């Protein structure tokens, strides 16, 4: 019966370590701000994936200085929070030039017939998986936002 106490002594530190909460993911505001404001090119979109993406949740900090393509994510729900700038997110509609860009991901050139939503700071928008969406900016526009991608 001496094996049980020895096993307990050997396994207890690992069990205690596993029970400790993980350190939070942290990007200081000045680091995020530097990423946003160092984007100078008029055709650039910078995406910073936050640490430790999982199979069911991803977070991204994004800054755009130009309109994007129409996106459709078969398996991801987008939860978007606008930080600064403005633009329009057209949701739904018929996509022109629709092509698969990766498994479960489609991109298109434009869309028609969708519903436009005005985006300004503090706007929150949830886009269901499988729904085309197209972020457009006014000429010379700029937008920064956080997107939480939830696996459907």
Defining key terms:
alpha+beta, single chain, 45% strand, 2 helices, Jelly Rolls, 5-stranded antiparallel beta sheet, 152 residues, 13 strands
Strand content: 35-45%
Number of strands: 13
CATH superfamily: Jelly Rolls
| Rg (CA only) | 21 Å
Q: Segments where pLDDT lies below 50 for 5+ residues?
A: none
CATH architecture: Sandwich
The general outline is globular
The biggest sheet, with number of strands, parallel, antiparallel or mixed sense and barrel status, is: 6 strands, antiparallel
Produce a short descriptive summary.
By secondary structure, the chain is of the alpha+beta class.
Task: Describe the protein in words.
With 152 residues, the protein is α+β, with helices and mostly antiparallel strands. It has one domain (25-151): Jelly Rolls (Sandwich), CATH 2.60.120.10. Helix content is 17%, strand content 45%. Strands 7-8-3-12-5-10 form a six-stranded antiparallel sheet, with no helix packed on it. The longest helix is centred in the first third of the chain and has 17 residues, at 3-19. The mean pLDDT is 82.
Write the layout of secondary structure elements.
Layout: H1 3-19, H2 29-37, E1 45-49, E2 57-64, E3 70-73, E4 76-85, E5 87-91, E6 94-96, E7 99-102, E8 105-108, E9 110-112, E10 115-119, E11 124-127, E12 133-136, E13 143-151
Antiparallel strand pairs: 1-2, 2-13, 3-8, 3-12, 4-11, 4-13, 5-10, 5-12, 6-9, 7-8
